Amino acid sequence: MKSTIFFSICSLLISIFSFGQTSTELFETESHSSTSFTDNGVIFNIISQVSTFDIQGNFPGTGWNGTAIDNRYIDNSNFSMSGASFSIKTTSNLFKVNRFWVFLSNIALNQAVTGTLTVTGKLAGVTKFTQTKTTGFATSLGSTNGYTLIDLTNLNGQNYTNIIIDELQITAGGNYTYVGLDALVWVKDSGIVLATNETKASKSKLSMYPNPTKGPFIIKTDENSKAEIYDQAGKMVKSLEVRQGENRADISELPTGTYLIRTLSGSFKILKQ
Question: Whole-structure pTM over 0.70, yes or no?
């Protein structure tokens, strides 16, 4: 009991004193036609699923930085098509998303058509959240240069800003075939220190021992799940399936250091000696 209370207090204190770094990517210093960009020391790749997306820099004055017109953004201007979809993904760091702005229209840049926008967050290929917005889009240039704010603090009544991901996927639906994205506000997270409501494990659902360990340890859980192990840089270094009950695991092959183990039931730090 005392060790449980001590762990909870430590987790709370770590969460209070270890803040992620909030950054805004405006794309103004990025290269036209590039399929990657760098912000706050993190490299993001632009991955096209349907249509071709990259950095747009040929049409000055058609972006939106959240308060004023700017010049560069991500879009699919040359290859607009139905179901346009792309991801912003990094394999070197985990991150959270606060908000971003989107311009939605058909191929003729008519915003007065109807459509949807689906926002999906993924971690190691697993969907952590997904929501489809169907109303409230800008239908003309207006005061935001035609952009609509997508605020993840209240997306369809849900707050997704505390969910750690490594990939943000944007998918247009209906008559929307063109997508422009600008002013991405995100939070850099090492993946080692999580917010308080993310680190706590469900009651009696997850435990692991011994900790520290020289390699072998036991994961005990009440449900079938997948355990993902991240290093201090936020890179997933190992994954394994865990079943209800006790599961033997081993990280002998990993270097000495602190690792984060995440399952559906919760997260724990483990020290490899």
Answer: no
